[in-house]
């Protein structure tokens, strides 16, 4: 699914709001027929902290609803990484829209370099889990494009935890 021009896929009024071009995306169908879209785009000028979102399209109106999971909305205390310190962290939080999000994070940040690998999975319903991985480095974003291939769509709501082991 890499290389697709996703801005052409979305509602034009939403695409105009993008501050950066989309890097990649993938879609998944929820049990109720709603379509969930996983998107990634550079967040800032130095390539650190990629902008990862999941949005939902309402089939009836073709309108984009509010974020179902917006990784940048994580409670700051959950992020807890330090420069030059390797970390492995798991956190669970409830988004302001009521959805439950769980994430695992592992990586390192040598001084002057931003290098993180983050995995987050979001429960869409009782029997389906949307899993994705992301990584970014400054300034060579494209060097880590291959890491974005680690996108897993699973029908299991428990066994996915095995996929997230380090």
Sheet of most strands: 5 strands, antiparallel
Query: Averaged pLDDT, please?
Result: 37
Shape: globular
Q: Would you identify the regions where 5 or more consecutive residues have pLDDT less than 50?
A: 1-28, 38-97, 99-166
Rg over C-alpha atoms, rounded to the nearest angstrom:
16 Å
Total domains, how many? 1
Helix content: under 10%
Number of helices: 3
The count of β-strands is 10
| β-sheet strand percentage | 35-45%
Secondary-structure element series: HEEEEEHEEEEEH
Give the structural class: mainly beta
By oligomeric state, this entry counts as single chain
Distance between the termini: 25 Å
How does this model look, in words?
With 166 residues, the protein is mainly β. The chain has one domain. 7% of the residues lie in helices and 40% in strands. Strand 7 and strand 8 form a beta hairpin. It is globular and about 50 Å long. The chain starts with 11 loop residues before the first helix and ends with a helix.
Short description:
The chain is mainly β.
Top keywords for this entry?
single chain, 166 residues, mainly beta, five-stranded antiparallel sheet, disordered N terminus
Topology overview:
Blueprint: H1 12-15, E1 24-29, E2 35-41, E3 51-58, E4 63-64, E5 69-70, H2 76-79, E6 87-94, E7 100-108, E8 115-125, E9 128-137, E10 152-154, H3 160-163
Antiparallel strand pairs: 1-2, 2-3, 3-4, 3-5, 6-7, 7-8, 8-9, 9-10
């Amino acid at each position: 699914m890499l290389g697709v021009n996703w801005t052409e896929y979305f509602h034009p009024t939403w695409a105009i709001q993008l501050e950066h071009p989309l890097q990649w995306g993938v879609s998944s169908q929820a049990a109720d027929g709603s379509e969930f879209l996983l998107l990634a785009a550079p967040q800032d000028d130095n390539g650190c902290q990629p902008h990862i979102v999941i949005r939902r399209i309402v089939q009836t109106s073709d309108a984009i609803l509010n974020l179902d999971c917006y990784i940048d909305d994580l409670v700051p205390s959950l992020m807890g990484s330090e420069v030059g310190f390797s970390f492995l962290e798991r956190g669970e939080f409830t988004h302001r829209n009521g959805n439950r999000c769980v994430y695992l994070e592992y990586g390192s940040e040598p001084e002057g370099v931003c290098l993180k690998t983050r995995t987050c999975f979001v429960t869409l319903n009782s029997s389906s889990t949307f899993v994705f991985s992301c990584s970014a480095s400054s300034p060579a974003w494209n060097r880590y494009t291959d890491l974005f291939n680690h996108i897993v769509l699973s029908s299991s709501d428990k066994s996915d935890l095995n996929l997230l082991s380090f």
